[in-house]
Structure formats: C-alpha cells, structure tokens
Amino acid sequence: MSKKPNAMYVMSGGGTVVVSASVYKLIHKIYTEYRDRIGTFFAAVGGMRGAVYEDLTDVFQYVIGDKYVRGDGNANAVSRLNQIKFYATPTFGTSRYNPKEEDLERMLNVFSVHNIHYLFLNGGNDSMLKARRIAQYAKERDYELYVTAIPKTVDNDLLVTHRCPGYASFAKQVVITTMSLEADVDSFAIPKYAANSGRIKEGAVAQVVVFMGRDQGWGAAASILGKLYDSYGPHVILTKEGGFNISKFLDKCQNAWDNYGKLLVVASEGVHDGTTYVANYLDISSSLSGLKFKEHTDSFKNTSVTDSRLASFLKILLENKLNIPTEIYKDFKCREEGPSYLERNNLEILSAVDFRDAIAVGEKAADLAFGKSSPISEVMVTLTPKPGEANYTLLENVADPTKGSKAMTKSIRSLDTPERLILSPDGMMINRGSFMDYISDFIDLNGPNRSELLRGEGFRLPLAKIDWPLEERLLPHY
Q1: Could you give all domains of the chain from N- to C-terminal order, each with its CATH number?
Q2: CA 468, CA 92: separation in Å to the nearest integer?
Q3: Which of helix, strand or coil describes residue 96?
Q4: Cβ–Cβ under 8 Å, residues 162 and 385
Q5: What is d(CA 13, CA 245) in angstroms, rounded to the nearest whole number?
Q6: Which helix (H) or strand (E) holds 211?
Q7: How confident is the model at residue 70 (pLDDT cuts 50, 70, 90)?
C-alpha cells in the first residue's frame, strides 16, 4: 500500500442495548492509540446495505470536527466520540442484507476506491458467515483486507465466546419483567389459608409471557433467576431445546394451578415440537377484512415466528383446557405478553457488566488489527468467563459456510454437566443452580441502569440522534 490504509465498521443484524459501546471503544482505541497506523476510519451508514451502496461517513472527521461540525481541533474530540457509546441502538444504523456474489464484488470496489484495508463487522451468527465470506472473497482476488468480527446478540448463541455482549442486559430485562408479572398474578391469587368458597367468586388469572429466542432458549431460561420458591412463577419455562407436547404442557400447568392457585408460563418465541414452531399452531386471520397473518423470512431464511402469536396460542389453549374450580372462581382469564423488540432496544434497563463487556470487545478488536506488527485477521473477538476480559477465535470456529449459521449455534444444553442437566426431564423447567453458576457474575440485577451511567458522565435522556453526513460517492450508483 503506497499510502496509509483506511478502516471501516459495518453493523449487521439486530442491535442490543450495549452495541454502540463496542463501536465507541473500537474507534476510541484506534483514534487515541493507533491513529498513526491508518488514514481515516469510515462507518457504513445503514450497515451492510450502506457498505454495498457506498453510504459511508468519515468518523474521524466527525471526531476532530474538521469537516462536519464547527472545528476546534482535538479539544473536544473525545467528548464528541463519547456520545456514541450510550445509544441503545446501532448508532450508524443496521441491515439484515445478505450480500450476493455481485454485491461482494461491489463491496471490494468500494473498499478499493476508498483505500479500505481493515474491516470490522459487528453481528451475530449470520453476520459471522458474512465476515468469513467477505474475507475469503477478498483473498481469492488478492485484495489485502484484514477482517475482524465483533460479537453481539441477545440470543447468546455464538460458539466459543463465554457469552455475547447484549445478552446480560436482555437477561436482566427478562428477570425483571418476569418478577413484575409474578407479583401481579400473585396479588390476584387466593391464598390457601384464605376463605376460598362462598357467595363471592373472583375471576381466576394466569399469565403467559414470551421472549425473544428463535433458535435457542437463553432468554426465557433467565427467568429462572426470579424463582426463589416453588410457588413463585415461572411455573413452566418453554424453550426450543425442551420441545413441546400439548398434553404434557397442560398437565404441568394444571399441576401448578392445583398447587399454587396461580400460573405463570414463560416461553421462547422459538418453542418447537420437532416439526414446526408452536406459534404456527395458531392461524391468524380476519374474515371481516379478508386478512391473513403474513409469514416473514429474511435473507438467511430465518422465519419470523413472533412472540405475540405464540403467546396468543398458549393463552387460548390454557383458557380452553385448564380446569379451574367453579365453586371458587366465576371464570378464567389468561393474559399474554410479548415485549418483542423492547427486549433488545430498551433505553433504560442494562447490565453494567454487559456494558463493560461491550467496551472490552471493541477494544480487543482494535488491538487485534493494530496492536502488533502485523494484523491478526479472520478472527472473532470472544469473552472469557471473567467479566470484561476479551480473547479471540478463528472465524472458521464460529462461521462454517458448509453447515450454515443454524448448525453453528450454542444451546443452553452447553451448561449440562454429568451431575446436573440444565433442563428438567420434561423439558419445561430450568435448573436454577446450573444457570446461576453461569450467569451470576455478569447479569448485574441490582447494578446501575443506563440513566445512572449517563448522569455519571454528564449526559441525560433523551439523547439527540447523530445525523451522520455521507462522504462523496466515488463509484457509479449500484
């Protein structure tokens, strides 16, 4: 390379509440310690789509104020950069686009014309496949490109890494939400020592709540942390790994109701019976309007099963099949919840340890690319069991094109030991001790939330969105 190479960051897939902390530290580390190694640092605005369409912003120019804002040199550079880390969504935008062969050629042209030879791709399972494909494509065409992947996903299903940045904050939300719903259901339950028959008949109340987790059950599993006693909900936890059988599910729910006079069911959106998603049991349509529920499939053939559809099915199932004593209750109502995207985009609830983990992987990515005489390429940053400690693994260990991302995922069964299995024999409950052994050091239930971290650094909600100006396009429109 005749002149200093440039670097670029690309976000891919859904965000997490701490994802912007990773790119903040990545850029901060390069700007403060490795700036002499590169010309400038670009970010693709709109994620993978922006990388293909050449929608690039020069982050260094924003930081030093030379071009996009009223310049004052380096005086406030770090404080401007500091604003990036608090966003609860990907600050440069994102995309689920899966580049085709011609798109990879276009991207290589974008890299070439902007002298980009360092690529940082931030994402989950599907994104690791993208990172490896891009690295291999560049190598086949003798283009010098160093690729570093940065993990993120609330699903927590990337291999090798002990946990994924974003998961601990998601798990914290799951626990708080579940405990909140348990307290509400409990307040309507009639205690066994109370008068439980007579002229006054109450309405019986149960609760179903569904959390994200299309392919793995890490999210729903976290709800076990709020279950201090058998009588506490959740009384049933459904995951994809645990499978599903209607009669066994109803038996477990009936047993919980008979014992405790209340019922709280927690489920992953991806609950599966071995043939299909249980959400597909419910056919949603409107005869009045002639409308039918529409299935959505992304470019990686991931089917959107939707938490609300599963919650509605379980609600209908329980309301029709659960036996409630009519001498005590006048009727039975099962409520359903599905927080959905709030789980990965919550402006307030986060784990402070998760926040530090996200910063750690951003810093490690910068060190892998620039910290030694030659870059360590085609790797993904990982987290060790120690909070805030990062390492790395080869991309081939987490992204295998021949198997696909669905075969390269980490199940909650990875927590199994010969002495203790993480799932109960019926597949509908989590071993609390096993799960606590894994998660207790980083979930941070009683730690500070985002607003407290913001106040500590002089920021307040709401944060103004940064409108990233685009660089001049040097290639014809694609």
Answers
A1: 6-165+347-400+448-456 (3.40.50.450), 170-343 (3.40.50.460)
A2: 8
A3: coil
A4: yes
A5: 32
A6: strand 202-211
A7: very low
Residue with tokens 């994802």: 19
Element (H, E) at 168: helix 167-188
| Banded model confidence at residue 72, pLDDT cuts 50, 70, 90 | very low
Q: How far is CA 410 from the centre of its chain?
A: 14
Pairwise CA distance, residues 74 & 102, whole Å: 40
Residue 188: C-alpha distances to residues 178, 185, 225, 323, 353 (Å): 16, 5, 22, 18, 36
Q: What is the DSSP annotation of 280-317?
A: GGS--EETTTTEEPPP-B-TT--B---HHHHHHHHHHH
Q: Which two tokens stand for residue 22?
A: 């990773």
Residue type for position 233: G
Query: How many angstroms separate the Cα of 457 from the Cα of each of 59, 60, 82?
Result: 21, 22, 9
Q: Are 59 and 27 in contact (CB under 8 A)?
A: yes
Beta bridge partners of 391: 382
Residue 457: per-residue pLDDT? 84
Q: Which two tokens stand for residue 157?
A: 């299903």
Type of residue found at 268: S
Measured between alpha carbons, how far is 96 from 13 in angstroms, rounded to an integer? Answer: 5
Q: How far apart are the C-alpha atoms of 339 and 244, rounded to whole Å?
A: 22
Secondary structure element (H or E) that encloses residue 43, with its range: strand 41-44
Take residue 364 and report the two structure tokens written for it.
Answer: 């490690």
State the amino acid at position 46 in one-letter form: G
Q: What's the token pair of residue 119?
A: 């690529």
Q: One-letter amino acid identity for 403?
A: K
Q: Which amino acid is at 198?
A: G
Please provide the distance, in angstroms rounded to a whole number, between the alpha carbons at the two ends of the chain: 26
- Quote the DSSP letter at residue 272: B
Confidence of residue 343 (pLDDT cuts 50, 70, 90): confident
Sole residue written with tokens 């960051």:
9
3-state SS string for 132-158? HHHHHHHHHCCCCCEEEEEECCCCCCE
Residue closest to 430 by CA, chosen among 225, 234, 272, 224: 224
Tokens representing 322 are 């659960």
Gap between the Cα atoms of 378 and 399, Å rounded: 11
Strand partners, 208: 265, 336
- Answer whether 122's CB lies under 8 Å from 11's CB: yes
Distance CA 46, CA 428 (A): 40
